[in-house]
Amino acid sequence: MDDIEIINQVLQGDQQSFEELIKRYQHFVFTIALRYSRNREDAEEIAQDVFVKAYRSLADFRRDAKFSTWLCTIAMNTTRTFLRKVKPRMDPLDPGTVHAQHTGNSADPTEKRSTHLLVNHVIGLLSADDATIITLFYKAEQSIEEIGVIMGLTPNAVKVKLHRARLRLKEKLELYFADEIKEILN
Fold first, then answer.
1. Are 151 and 76 in contact (CB under 8 A)?
2. Which of 28, 54, 60, 61 is 20 to 30 A away from residue 109, measured at CA?
3. Strand ranges, E, within 44-165
4. Where is the RNA polymerase sigma factor 70 region 4 type domain (predicted)?
């Protein structure tokens, strides 16, 4: 079933069908919340709030965009509201002391996970906007236009911001993890 069919079922009174939407998008929403909050517990709380808000507002979903785009907008707004209410926390990871470990075997699932963790960590070192645009484009596979809707930007502005975010990501990778990158590429 696609998202629209599930939404129609929920709106017709089958509240249990909403669980399928939660299963499909819980990782997506959690990732967005974590990018901004940088705290697992806060991200879990935010994700829960996002789905409650989405459920309550489901009748307002206009269907002129993908459900994931609409949900992402709710996630970003909920996260921003949450973060305004809490005091900023110190990032427990010092980027200068965090190093990924690699085995040297690119077919090794452990190395792939390590590489994935390395990239995620470096994305976490970016500003919230840069991390969000990278996450939306590469992990959530949102189009330039969808990212524009989510972030309130024109498609051209998204392209420029994405380009600049990629450059900053590359700089951080080269700055903090030059040895690991060389090992991955070999």
1. yes
2. 28
3. none
4. 121-169
User: 141-167, pLDDT tens digit by residue?
Assistant: 788 998 888 888 899 999 999 999 999
136 in Cβ contact with 147 (< 8 Å): yes
Residue range 58-92, pLDDT digits in tens? 999 988 888 988 998 899 889 888 988 875 554 43
E strand spans, 27-178: none
The CATH class that applies to domain 3-85 reads: mainly alpha
What is the pTM for the complete model shown? Answer: 0.61
Spans of all domains in the chain: 3-85, 109-185
For the chain, the residue count is 186
Residues sharing a CB contact under 8 Å with residue 129, sequence separation 6 or more, in sequence order: 151, 161, 165
What amino acid occupies position 119?
V
Amino acid identity, position 128: A
Which CATH number fits the domain 109-185, given the four candidates 1.10.10.10, 1.20.1440.170, 3.40.50.300, 2.40.30.110?
Answer: 1.10.10.10
